[in-house]
Amino acid sequence: MSLPERVKTKMKDAGLRAVNKPQRLNDSSSKSHHVMASEGGKYKYIKFGQEGVKTNQTVGQREAFKSRHAKNIKKVKCLQHTGQIKLSGLLPRLLLLLRNGRKVRDGS
Questions:
Q1: What mean pLDDT do residues 68-88 have?
Q2: What's the pLDDT at 15?
Q3: 34 has which bridge partners?
Q4: Cβ(86)–Cβ(106) below 8 Å
Q5: What value does the mean pLDDT take over residues 66-72?
Q6: Is the pLDDT score of 16 beyond 80?
Q7: Quick check: pTM over 0.70?
């Protein structure tokens, strides 16, 4: 399936190379990343992330993250252990899905 012309134009203007592949954003907005998201044949340009935020830099930040997400990390590890999901760099996405109360599906 080829991309609609308006999507190609927007991606070229924004400097994006692929659909559903986030990239660093270098403009004067207060966001740090952007992506051309696609789902079900619909396309949407999204800017996200807080510019200049540093996370996971110190021991204190790592401990705060673990304590803040302990319940969801436990769920993810349980699902992985039982073979319901395979983790390959998807931990942040899985944590977000679980925090929002969505059902997790195996992507493979």
A1: 70
A2: 93
A3: 23, 47
A4: yes
A5: 83
A6: yes
A7: no
Buried residues in 56-94 as b, exposed as e (16+ CB within 10 A): eeeeeeeeeeeeebeebbebbeebeeeeebeeeeeeeeb
Residue 108's pLDDT is what?
43
The C-alpha atoms of residue 108 and residue 102 are separated, in whole angstroms, by 18
Q: Which pLDDT value is given to residue 17?
A: 92
Cross-strand partners of 47:
34
CA–CA dist 59, 68 (Å, integer): 14
Q: How far apart are CA 7 and CA 41, in angstroms?
A: 11
Mean pLDDT over 40-52 rounds to 88
The helix/strand/coil state of 23 is strand
Q: Residue with structure tokens 């592949």? A: 21
Contact 79, 104 (CB under 8 A): yes
Judged by phi (left if over 0) then psi (alpha if -120 to 50, else beta), residue 83 lies in left
